[in-house]
Write a sequence for this structure.
């Protein structure tokens, strides 16, 4: 069983979670402008409670986006620094996938449409389905689209979806016309959380999907932002 630390600062929610010997420890706080102040103390608190050091872990997972450009950059940079210092491989985890995993953990949902408000009249959205291993798996691709485009893309009267995230809450009126067999809201899931990244990270680590620090990149979905790697890392 792998020991993994996960952290996420991609949205208003700031979180860190640790899986050690099958036990999960979580720190979480909604603080839109305080991620840089809160995330490292969260990590220190988790490691202290578990009685381990970073170098004792097998891998470090992080929310690679989509989400706030600034938040995704902060999370990626801090995760890179921690992993580089402890010589750990990294596991980039989709924030939308983490939300989908949360829908399964809390509501036993198996077919979901997590959506994050992308600002500028757009929404980050994707469809996820539960696989045989109990991990939410992407169907097609992650998108950044308008509410009208979401309706056009997922207008499936023969299919039922669970909905979750700030994208649905922000554009509730426009999305109310979506014609599907059934839409069920997953209460209490507005943001991704590191807790739900752990299950995905464990599966990815077991399947050899960990990457080196220099290859752990953010995913913005929008193509208008570039990312610089750590200095001296190529």
């Amino acid at each position: 069983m792998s020991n993994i630390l996960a952290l996420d600062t991609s949205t208003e929610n700031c979180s860190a979670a640790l899986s050690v010997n099958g036990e999960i420890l979580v720190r979480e706080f909604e603080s839109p402008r305080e991620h840089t102040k809160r995330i490292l103390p969260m990590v220190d608190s988790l490691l202290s409670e578990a009685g381990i050091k970073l170098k004792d872990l097998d891998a470090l997972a992080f929310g690679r986006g989509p989400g706030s450009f600034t938040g995704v950059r902060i999370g990626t940079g801090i995760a890179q620094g921690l992993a580089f210092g402890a010589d750990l491989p990294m596991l980039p985890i989709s924030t939308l996938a983490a939300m989908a995993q949360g829908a399964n953990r809390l509501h036993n949902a198996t077919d979901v449409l997590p959506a994050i408000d992308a600002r500028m009249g757009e929404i980050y959205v994707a469809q996820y389905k539960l696989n045989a291993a109990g991990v939410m798996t992407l169907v097609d691709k992650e998108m950044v689209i308008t509410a009208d485009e979401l309706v056009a893309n997922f207008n499936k009267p023969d299919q039922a979806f669970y909905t979750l995230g700030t994208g649905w809450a922000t554009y509730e009126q426009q999305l109310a016309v979506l014609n599907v067999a059934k839409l069920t809201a997953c209460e209490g899931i507005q943001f991704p959380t590191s807790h739900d990244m752990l299950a995905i990270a464990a599966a990815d680590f077991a399947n050899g999907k960990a990457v080196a620090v220099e290859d752990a990149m953010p995913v913005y979905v929008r193509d208008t932002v570039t990312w610089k790697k750590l200095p001296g890392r190529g």
About this structure: The radius of gyration is 17 Å.
